[in-house]
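Researcher: Go.
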Amino acid sequence: MQHMSEERQARAIRRLSLAAFSSAIALRMCDPLLPKLADDFHTTTGQASHVIAYFSVAYGVLQAFYGPLGDRHGKFRVITFAVFASTLGAIGSIFASSLDWLVISRVVSGASAAAIIPLSMAWIGDNIPYEQRQATLARFLTGQILGLAAGQLAGGFFADTLGWRWAFAMLAALYVMVGLLLLLELKRSHGIDAAAHQPEANQQSPRLWHQIHRVISIRWARAVLLTVFLEGLLVFGVFAFVPAFLHFRFGVSLMAAGAIFAIYGLGGISYTLVTKHLVTHLGERGLSLGGSILLSVAFLMMFTARGWEWAVPATFVCGLGFYMLHNTLQTNATQMAPKARGTAVSMFASCFFMGQAVGVAMFAMIVDRVGAVWLFAIAAVIVPVIGAGFAYALRFRQT
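Model: Structure:
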């Protein structure tokens, strides 16, 4: 970014990371709330999981829309607007008197929060050289990782104490605070969205379909998008039921279940601390394969667990393995269509969360019939195949 000093650039990335933190809390906060929501609305855990599945659908579908919007009007500006708009869905959730009302409010939240993480990644892609991008994305993702962990903790805490409505009140207040910080940065740094004013950016973004076609016409982009869809389906689709599994299988409280799964965030943070070392010694292929193998090991630990204690190391390994694989996919997503980067990264995120939505819907039927334990066996078998397939594709891509 030519119009910003390195200090302002670093500050902007920190604030984008805070925005990712708030978005990630919204994404995972309902996981430990599912048993409480099922009780309050007199339904099953699988039915209550609609608050996650429909959020993911809205989150995924709308991301394809925000990409061209960010390319034309400025990614940082659209992110700021989206953070404020997300407050409406959180407020609607506070006053939900039925499961349907809560699901609709979650759809509003997902539709607005959809802009935050993919456009932040695209903004980084616009302004950070590729050789520095994986490490920069890892630092940015610290906010998302902490948000995922905080969402689990907050959901479990409010489920066992003040009630689930207070969880959404906390989320609304967080959105307002982060939105004000982003707005201040937008006013302070006039060149923050310089890429949006380049002639090429304005030529490439008027029609959504043209932008999408530009991306999917690239063979490598199709490979990345398919891989991240399957990753979302198997990994995050299973993650949604981990707190409920711990609660019903081992009798731990919802707050404890959320806290146990929040250790996943520690695994993710550990990845960000050693990213440069891992990239240097393993390369993208090694990260993809190694991350998928670690995920498989973690899921096997959950499948064979004889007590809740097994979930502690398993969730840590989950976090480490997931970000080894996912950050490699994200880095490739920022470069798979440089002339339509906002659209490409938004499509990447859309595929990931549509995969989650499909996974949650599929796995909810299994959970209601035979319990969540078999989800771990399914994921343990298939996830390494996905990681190995992408590593194999990277071999030819790099050649």
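Model: The radius of gyration is 20 Å.
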